[in-house]
Specification:
Elements: E1 4-7, H1 16-26, E2 30-33, E3 35-36, E4 39-40, H2 46-58, E5 62-70, H3 94-111, E6 115-118, H4 136-147, E7 150-154, H5 164-173, E8 178-182, H6 183-188, H7 194-200, E9 204-209, E10 211-214, E11 220-223, H8 232-242, E12 247-250, H9 258-272
Helix pairs in contact: 3-4
Amino acid sequence: MQAITVLNPDELGQDPAVGMDLALALGVRHLEIRTAYGSNALVLDDEQVRRVRQLADERGLRVAALASPLWKWCSPEATPGRVDSFGFPTQVHAGDRERWVERAITVAGLLGTERVRVFSHLSVGEQTESLRDDPLLPYALKAAERAGVQLLLENEPVCTIAEPASLLDVLQAHPGLGLWLDLGNLFEVGQGTVEAVEALAPYTEYVHIKDYRPRDDGMKDFVAAGTGAVPYRELLPALHRARPGLPYALETHVRATPGEALTLGAEFLRATVPGGLA
């Protein structure tokens, strides 16, 4: 089964048409939507979301996933650290969260995708909340199932669940939940191994690809996939063997030359995933 390549148009800016045109030029037929027109996708009004879908349809592109910010939040009483939430608040009242879940499911429907990303609460010391025991999660999973959507948990280091053991714990506790596996994040927490990938593969429904070179000051220099420290040449074949046919989404974070990074990343993926990518 051949895997697919996914491109996020907002890597090239807030006019989604620009990124979609690059996708076409690269032979990429699937999109991930996170932000557009200066707003998080969940904050866009229905007409703006429909416009994104129309632009994709006009080019023969399909939205593979909605990269929502659900659960990348904490309570208003907590103080989050520096977090990139892509235009969405990091402090959300408990009473508002159900509405955001419903909005994400609605946006996914408007975009025509069945995959919606979620996180696991920001880590904020003693005020950190638990996703595994969050009563909102069973509600969200049932609402998603009714809508024909699957919620996929990303392993995010600034959130509570980033390592294989904790990922497996919550995925097994909530069978409707899938995994949005970020291999760069897995490497960041010291778990970028073939063994970890093989353990997580049965739950994986979507894959994020980004690469970087660690700096002496603890920061990262993001680079095109295949040119950094993440051991993709070992991880990608192992994941494909265990779980063929997955979507692989390029998330470069390369600010200066995003088009070049996406082009090189797409070439690398096609050369490294056995059988190539569509």
